[in-house]
Amino acid sequence: MRHFDEIKMTSIETHFTNDPDRAKRMSLKWEDFFIDYSKNRLNSKTILLMCEFAKEAGLEKAINAYFEGEKINQTENRAVLHTALRNFSMDSLLIDNKNIIPEIHAVRKKMKLFSNKIISGEWKGFTGKSITHIVNVGIGGSDLGPLMVTEALEFYKNHLTTFFISNVDGDHVNEVLKKCPIETTLFLIVSKSFNTQETITNAKTIKKWFLSNSSEVSLSKHFIAISSNTQKIKEYGLTKENVFLMKNWTGGRFSLWSSAGLSICLSIGYENFEKLLKGAEAMDIHFKKTPFEKNMPLILSFIGVWYNNFYNAETEVIIPYTQYLRSFPNYLQQASMESNGKSVDRNGENVTYQTGTIIWGSTGTNAQHAFFQLIHQGTRLIPADFIGFKNSLYKEKEHQDQLIANFFAQTEALMKGKKKSEVIRELELANYSSKSIDRLLPFKIFKGNCPTNSILIKELTPYNLGALISLYESKIFTQGILWNIFSYDQWGVELGKELANKILITINSRSNNIQNKSTEQLINLYRF
Ligand code: F6P
Fold first, then answer.
1. Which residue of the set 98, 289, 369, 395 is catalytic?
2. Which atom of ligand 1 is nearest to 144's Cα?
3. I want to staple 321 with a disulfide (CB 3.0 to 4.6 A). Which of 142, 266, 294, 407 is the partner?
4. Could you name the CATH architecture of 84-274?
């Protein structure tokens, strides 16, 4: 706190004046990644103190426990091992006295064989035609990760058309079905629990649609289940040949690396899917082995905590300067907010500080023309992560130069703002009268001093995307340790699910088991 008081009034620009080497010192390089975090309201001492804080919080031990499969999801008594799904060097990892690695390899092999069959056209639908359309049916982690990655790697995509159905909104499923040829569409029902209302309802509707023009025996040619609940899959009508198993140590929001990523594997091919995993593994190794002060996920997590807990910033905005990453902010929203949206610490006590940040964002340059005004001149402090790629995939130099110029310009503008003297000079040059200048002055001044991280990556490849996702996963993990909260459960979403079921009964049975007058009034309005 003393350090915060010392530097809180120092602007980012003043930090640059005080330390001419700052840009160099506050930049990190790793493989194709470059992170410049110098445009922040902090100095080297801040990072040093954050490193000490992380050591005191037992981060090193926590990282080992995480990777080694200790049951760090204590409230559900589970290990958190999405990192094992992308580990290509380990032969053995014991969970409940069972080595889980051979099983991981077996699932990967099954994904490879299956996706090769679908992509090559060897797998035939019920009328003997090859598959042309893939529909992923799932919600939350069973949708957001696969959707985001499939979009992000569109450049590497094959001939298969891919759709995602998530919402229980019947219009969503029908709009997609409208575009799916029944003879050549493969449905992937992705639900770790196979108990999620939205997914099961959509799966039943799709099955009914399918059976209205084919027979039960044809189901196995068009439906795949990805889940850990073998009993429910059986009830749905699928046998084990059509099942890809998920394990309970794969958290839903971190499941794209598992068989839940089958839609990714199908759309870009197994080799590219493996590159995605390998990129994530490489970033995991960086996270595990790099000293705190040079560690990319750690530095990003320190900066997040710094603004959240000292400057009371409430949100963090993510701006990828590529249209491919249009769903990345959404994906991170779940990964981060479902993980760290907790108000009870690891001892079950209410926390006395802010935890999880609100994550939002959109692509640059579109976002500049939408909500940047509020970041530049609004009343709130909104730290931003800018993510860009040095090379564009179609090598459109004119476009790429403009895109990157905007990225850099915005980080500069956010930091510098526009001073009174600059506005006056600008208006004088445009021949404004001194009266008009006085009147316009307050509106045209930008206070600046808005913090940004610049993440510049060589090219959007499957490998680099894997590393980027892993970078943020480890940031989320670290923040959970620093805030002393459990990041891998999500009890808060359960109440709404229970009440939705209760209200559904009320809607269908016309009896009333709802106490609240406002809710009752809404139900009646809907029913009659
Ligand atoms: O409602 C939250 C949640 O449990 C997420 O954590 C999960 O990703 C999503 O629901 C879907 O769960 P499932 O894969 O079991 O259908």
1. 369
2. 8
3. 407
4. 3-Layer(aba) Sandwich (3.40)
